[in-house]
Amino acid sequence: MSIRVLLADDQELIRTGLRLFLDTQEGIDVVGEAQDGEDAVVRAAELRPDVVVMDIRMPILDGVAAAARLTAPGRDHTPRILILTTFDLDEYVYGALRAGAAGFLLKDAPRHRLLEAIQVVAAGDALLSPTVTRRLIQEFAARPSVVARPSPLLDSLTPREREVLVLVARGLTNGEIAEELMVTEATAKSHLGRVLTKLGARDRVQLVIFAYANGVAPAGQ
Fold it and tell me: Which of left, alpha, beta for 217 (phi over 0: left; psi -120 to 50: alpha)?
């Protein structure tokens, strides 16, 4: 089945360019366009896309607020959110992560990366490029590292699972985690799966946020 995509950007030329490319790709069905965040929320409810490719800065309702609405608990349909960003305002990126975005793509990325990103988030995975991960870690490193009351969910993790959480927060891939822990990649994936389940996290993006917010990966690491 094709991946149903909604494009949300306040610039018509951007939407047109994205659509012209995606319409030529097998397995992608662009079901609609939205010109601002409010329009994206309305159109997503009508069209029920699998993925919303959304600009982060738009009028009426920005991408952060729109992502929060689209991923709010209790919605009849929850699409995956792929944020388009020029990445010059880190606070927007941090806010979008907390709002439930599943991936980030820089606007100057090559076209094949857009296709790859849509496929990754549609499959239920998270897309955090090394650049995004580094900037996210820098954002957390600039914040106070003292956590008043860490989540009790941390107690459910084994020492090895806690290690995996720290390595995810550092931006390591599954292969790099396996190498760091001297285990197979399959074993690393298994550990990661258990961490996601125990912490009730949707993807590794949420694990990064959880780790830094709860002092598991102290600022500066």
Answer: beta
